[in-house]
Amino acid sequence: MSKVALVTGGTGGIGTAICQRLADNGFKVITTYFEPEEQAKAWAEAQNFDVDLYPCDVSDYESCVHMREHILADHGRVDVIVNNAGITRDGKFTRLTPEKWKAVMSTNLDSLFNVCHQFVEGMTENGFGRIVNIASINGQKGQAGQTNYSAAKAGAHGFTMALAQEVVRKGVTVNTVSPGYTGTDMVMAIREDIRDMIIDGIPMKRLGKPEEIAAVVAFLCSDDAAFVTGANYAANGGQHMH
Question: Which superfamily does 4-231 belong to?
């Protein structure tokens, strides 16, 4: 029987690549969506792999409870969680509103609790689990205009290290992947001259590919990564070395 992998926010650029790679590796892939249902279904139909969709607001605990009920009714268990869903609400700190702060913290950090809380006990009972939290280079080095995002993504790895220690003897690993600037729609929407400046600051002189991030995630979800837990894998072309 295939292991079941839940990827939150799987319809985005990096999320799609992660779903594809896990499907290629033999996982039964399921993903959450927050956009309109028609849009999510159109995304699923455009893929060349099988994926099940579940509506969920990962920033809302009760929404995650409902998601768990539907997933367990359909699939019986979840073996892998990739917490990939995330948003940005950038702004200079003095102009950042409480709403923008809360939106980013709840979607990018509270969501880790909301989603993992649904499935971790089942993983420990089954004696197997893989949790991968997608953070960011800016959670490692900070970024002007992103106090909310940088704080949430730094918090993601703190969550990783603490949870990893709680479940380590139950066959469950918890790790973080911190991508640098990657060629997704969000990054490609940045004004070209600013994007060129970003690329100039990357020692490899190029953006990452979503498939390259997905490859790191896939390794951490595999049996080969059984001895890796509490780690933060940077994939940023050498832009920040820690």
Answer: NAD(P)-binding Rossmann-like Domain (3.40.50.720)
Distance CA 156, CA 160 (A): 6
Claim: this prediction has a pTM higher than 0.70? yes
pLDDT above 90 covers what percent of the chain?
A: 96
Q: Which tens digits make up the pLDDT trace of 142-183?
A: 999 999 999 999 999 999 999 999 999 999 999 999 999 999
CA–CA gap between residue 27 and residue 41 (Å, rounded): 20
Question: Is 54 in the active site?
Answer: no
Q: Distance between CA 55 and CA 227 in Å, rounded?
A: 33
Choose, from 33, 54, 149, 233, the residue flagged as catalytic.
Answer: 149
How many Cα atoms sit within 13 Å of 146 on the Cβ side?
17
Query: Which residue in 14, 15, 39 sits closest to 29, CA to CA?
Result: 15
